[in-house]
Amino acid sequence: MVAVLFKKRPILLASLSLCLLSVSTACATAPNGKSWESSFAADPNLPDNGLTLDQSSPQGNTQPNAIAQLPEDFPSEIPIYPEVQLQAASNSEPRLARWTSPDPSNLIQSYYQKEFQSNNWEIVTQNGDDTRSTLVARRDDLQVNLSVQPTSRETPATSESPSTDAATELTIEYNRNAGEVAIAENSTSEPDSLLRVGNIGQRLGLNSPGSSTADNSTNTPQTTSVASEFTDIEKVPQFRPYIEDLAVLGVLKPDSASKSNSASGAFEPNKAVTRRQYARWLVAANNQVHANRPGQQVRLASGTSQPAFSDVPRSDPDFAAIQGLAEAGLIPSTLSGDSTNVLFRPDAPLTRENLVLWKTPLDTRSTLPKASVEAVQETWGFQDSGKVNPTALRAVLADFQNGESSNIRRVFGYTTLFQPQKTVTRAEAAAALWYFGSQGEGLSAKEAQQLKRQPSQPTAQSEAPPTGSENQ
Fold first, then answer.
1. Could you report the per-residue pLDDT of 76-108, keeping only the tens digit for each?
2. Which one of 120, 230, 258, 307 is most buried, by most CB atoms within 10 A?
3. Kind and range of the H or E run holding 175
4. DSSP letter at 247?
5. Which of 275, 191, 271, 283 is nearest to 239 (CA)?
6. pLDDT above 80: residue 242
7. How far is CA 231 from the centre of its chain?
8. Which one, of 321, 320, 317, lies nearest residue 110 by Cα?
């Protein structure tokens, strides 16, 4: 019998296997089949012993890199540009966050300028060139240092697919209780300006060489620091106070057109000022002098505005300021109904009549009066009144009505020749921008420094500004 079973073993084994297969299939489809099936699964708690069923890496090595996250206490007041990807954030000193964006840098810069201005931030300093735009803003006890710069990564023209590399890098450094440290306290001298803003910005590379900031390890008034930064303003002693006060406010800095001059701290006061430079300074000076009065500030144009001038596209580094002046009706353009002004000529030298034409409306804050050549001759006594452009005549006459606070008297002194087409120097432009407002009711750059200490208080009326002779 045993022998018979032994001979039939292959048949029996095959039958047994078939039975087991049928049972397992039935159990798997039964209501409790999953439990029965799991009882045969490998115990996940058993040691790996180095044995795997495939060649994939261990699970711990297949996790993606950690995604950067903003700290929980990141100030909600700080606006975040919509199209950005956070790259890094630090909750330790210095507290900062860094993003990248596919959008161009000028669009991002315009976004922050508009956001800060519309939400009652005080713009402390603002600078920009082709490689980096920086802005320092403060509201209450919070200070923000913004740096926007294009990246060097570009997609080759022969590439078949567009690049996904970011076009712009955006860095924000922020600091609470900044108001307590931003103003240098000096019991023996007048508190002239912000001393620590520059050092905060230098950690992010915010300040270009020769910028008007002082080391926070000293209590030296800011004017002294600016005087040492500008190595050549002793050439124009009558204009030196104006240049220094505007530099303290962050409006002026060493000439960036020449790398050698920028490195040596030269302001080049006798160099002709261009139309773009004056437009940029005009907006910056007005907004700094009226830092506590948002209703008196010139709004910078957004990066989506339709350009008013064909030679100042959105990509121009001074587009926001020039376009903002045009949109405010402060400079002639097609927006103000002047169909002949389709070109701004940003790099052309500024003339005397344009200096007065652009600046005077920000002093009078009213419609310019009607004027004639005879009226200008009678008031100013200019022998060349007939050479003044009819559009500029109104501003020249209105400037006379501002008495000792007039731009012409402060910049050019006593003269019987206006020379409307004569080129304006950088020092003369600074003198014009030192004071905004009508006689006895305006504000100077010097007074604006003091008012920065009281950002929540109403702007006080200023005293009459010094004439050119008082600053000799």
1. 889 999 888 898 888 776 688 899 998 888 888
2. 230
3. strand 168-176
4. H
5. 271
6. yes
7. 27
8. 320
Q: How confident is the model at residue 417, as a pLDDT? A: 96
Element (H, E) at 146: strand 142-150
Q: Closest by alpha carbon to 299, among 277, 316, 322, 276?
A: 322
**Does residue 144 lie within any of the structural domains?**
yes
Taking alpha carbons only, the member of 357, 344, 286 closest to residue 318 is 344
Q: What is the mean pLDDT of residues 456-469?
A: 44
3-class DSSP state of 153: coil
Q: Which helix (H) or strand (E) element contains residue 137?
A: strand 133-139
Q: Which two tokens stand for residue 342?
A: 């389709």
The answer to whether the CB of 275 falls within 8 A of the CB of 349 is yes
Q: What is the pLDDT of residue 128?
A: 67
Domain total for the chain? Answer: 1
Q: Is residue 35 part of a domain?
A: no
Given a cut of 80, whether residue 441 has pLDDT beyond it is yes
358 C-beta neighbours (distance < 10 Å), count = 21
Instruction: Tell me if 88 is assigned to some domain.
Output: yes
pTM of the predicted protein model: 0.54
Cβ–Cβ < 8 Å for 375, 432: no
Residue 423 lies inside a defined structural domain of this protein: no
